[in-house]
Amino acid sequence: MKTTTIKKSALALMACILALAFALVGCGGSKTDPEEAFLGSWKLSGGEIYGEELDDETIKTMEEWGLNCILILDEDGEGQLDLFGDVEDITWKVKSDGTAKISAEGVDFKATLKDGTLTLKDGDDNISFTKSKKDLSDTVKKDRDMAKANEEAEEEEAEGKGARKAITPAVTVADDDLCTITVTEKFEDELGTIGLTVEVTNKSDKNLTFYSPSGKTNVDGTMKEPWFSCDLMPGTNATEEFTFSTGDLDSIDDLVNITIGIDAYETETYEDVASYSALIP
């Protein structure tokens, strides 16, 4: 009888253990968590952007160029999306239909997961990822740091430009019954365009077009082909830029000893009415 009692107790204990195990699985271990399958680092495996297929050869070439496309989904509903070096912080959430909503900089992507492939869709474009066996956070961090360094370098370069130097006294190119033309400053804008600021007044009773004719402008003894055009109604004035081709001059400091030519014609008839030139030190 004692043996029978022990056997019954052992069976009862086993039943409790099995019941507990089934209860734990039924209550939802990590395997039943719908977010579990999305977690981790994902790397580019295919897709189509602007009608161009991202095939294996294209992806390999981009990787050789250091252009990464990586998606990282963390447990806290946050992550990073590295689109070829442009890294954005994201938020994500699995929906009731098993898809996920991924938001980056106000743009929402629908993410589907099927047969180990995670696909992001935005309109007609789609990008596919497969899960990486290793954490790609360091690669994303390097891309983010590189993008920040490039942005800072561009800002420093832009700050080095944008110079303006007033011409004192301003140089008068023309002052007669037809018009007044005055050059007031030299400039270099943020895009590297170099030139002169010109103020023009039409004193006539005709519509006039002022322009820079070919072969009448040089900078420090070297002929240049500038751009200048200004259409004015009778009795009106305007401030326009007299610019030189990008690459013609390295900086505003090269803009010295300038001989400029500005001609004028009647806008309606194309009849030439005046030709002017002036030396700007």
Which features does this protein show?
8-stranded antiparallel barrel; signal; 2 domains; Lipocalin-like domain-containing protein; 281 residues; disordered N terminus; 3 helices; single chain; Lipocalin; 6-stranded antiparallel beta sheet; Immunoglobulin-like; 21% helix; alpha+beta
Short description:
With 281 residues, the chain is α+β, with helices and mostly antiparallel strands. The chain contains three helices and 20 strands. The model is unreliable at 1-31 (pLDDT under 50).
Helical/strand content category: alpha+beta
CATH topology of the largest domain: Lipocalin
Calculate the mean pLDDT score and round it. 87
Number of helices: 3
Report the biggest beta sheet as strand number plus sense, adding barrel if it closes.
8 strands, antiparallel, barrel
What is the H/E string? HEEHEEEEEEEHEEEEEEEEEEE
CATH architecture of the largest domain: Beta Barrel
The percent of residues in helical segments reads: 10-25%
So what's the overall shape?
Answer: elongated
Strand content: over 45%
Quaternary: single chain
In the sheet with the most strands, the strands line up as 1-3-4-5-6-7-8-9
Number of domains: 2
The CATH class name of the largest domain reads: Mainly Beta
What separation lies between the terminal Cα atoms?
122 Å
Radius of gyration: 35 Å
User: Which spans have pLDDT < 50 for at least 5 consecutive residues?
Assistant: 1-31
Let me know the number of strands. Answer: 20
Region (Disordered): 141-163
Protein name: Lipocalin-like domain-containing protein
Organism: Collinsella acetigenes
Keywords: Signal
